[in-house]
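Appendix C: a fully annotated inverse folding record. The material below is reproduced so that readers can follow the format used throughout the book. The structure is listed first as tokens, followed by the designed sequence.
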């Protein structure tokens, strides 16, 4: 386990929930929560390229075991999308869970 300290941040589950209230920007999200790395579970939707990951990891190195947790974070969102939309999200979620079980 890493000894690097980090602070929990508000993580937003839905993009696009932006409006204006009294002429000032407002973000609303019915699924906001605190976390440290779970936000990467939705990175599959963002098409983030290698340059993004290199820049990110130059600032925030991966903690030990991140790859396995990443698969779990992704499975959560794949299962949520399957629940909402059906289709191919089922197979994607099963693949993520297999990576978790394999310890990858």
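Designed amino acids, in order:
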């Amino acid at each position: 386990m890493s000894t690097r300290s980090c602070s929990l941040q508000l993580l937003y589950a839905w993009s696009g929930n932006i409006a204006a209230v009294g002429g000032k920007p407002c973000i609303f999200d019915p699924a906001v929560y605190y976390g440290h790395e779970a936000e990467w579970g939705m990175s599959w939707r963002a098409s983030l390229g290698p340059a993004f990951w290199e820049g990110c990891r130059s600032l925030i190195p991966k903690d030990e075991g991140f790859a396995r947790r990443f698969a779990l974070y992704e499975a959560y969102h794949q299962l949520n999308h399957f629940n909402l939309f059906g289709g191919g999200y089922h197979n994607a979620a099963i693949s993520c869970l297999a990576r978790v079980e394999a310890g990858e």
